[in-house]
Records
---
Amino acid sequence: MNEEHARAAADIAEVEAANTAFYEALERGDHDELSGRWLPGEDLTVSCVHPGWPVLTGRGDVLRSYALIMANTEYIQFFLTDVNISMTEDTALVTCTENILSGGPAEEGDALGPLVGQLVVATNVFRRTADGWKLWSHHGSPVLTESDEEDDGETPS
């Protein structure tokens, strides 16, 4: 393997690790760690789209959204599948499927609220910085499954 291919392989491994660390910080509810995973300052405006939310732009709005999610989610776990990484010199594009298991605040007397599964396809854009790969943009979109009525071969009305 020549030096160029070795560097590309190392970059892909670093981006994959940065992507995994982003989701792990969210699972742990570690807002400080999660904040450190995003591009610092406003040189390049960060953006985020959570499923069903409008576009959020700027570090303040993006990080507040994660604080809100963490405050209202007792448990969340991500199982990433279909991870694909494409890159140029200083920008990496990660697409993946987020298989999410989450639970909200518990009802009276329960240890945890009901667990809910959700399937989201996500695009994460990373930029190379002196401190490693940082998130520039995250976009999550829910996967809508066909209903049983549509699976029976009939045309939906």
---
Amino acid sequence: MTSDKQLTHISKFLSLVLQHQPKTIGIKLDQNGWTNVDELIENANSNGIKFDRETLNYIVATNTKKRFAFNETLDKIRASQGHSVEIELGYTNQKPPEILYHGTGEKSVQSIIDTGLERRNRQHVHLSSDIETAIKVGQRHGKPFVFKVLAGQMYNDNFQFFISDNGVWLTDNVPTKYLKQNDE
């Protein structure tokens, strides 16, 4: 069986090639972000990242953030969100909860207050439906800070929201007027 350290390494590698740099191993993502599973495994193995279909199935099934998904016939895989390459995930606009959350590191707070939340090199801004997830996301960037996002108000003002396969809310940007510091 593959060790936890190896599984983490493979998972990070999958995030790299399925979200950002498919050319690293010579695979292509279709317009919806899907790539052929057998080709992914073969190209990864020939580039020194060794895993088999059983290991890939295990990573997809057990990833706590549900970062990856198989299609219905299980012959294609994609990242659920977080792409910096241009793809169309095929999500439809949905009404979000009144309040969503965005976790970040304290060092980014002033910039966000100044400019709002911007997608930067990603396709969307990522928002959480619960504060606990936002705190965990913020911890990846230092001391966590959580913004409340007035998502219901944004939706009423014609902003679009989508929900990814793994429950992350996505939108193009969040202007400052829709941001509240969590203690407000």
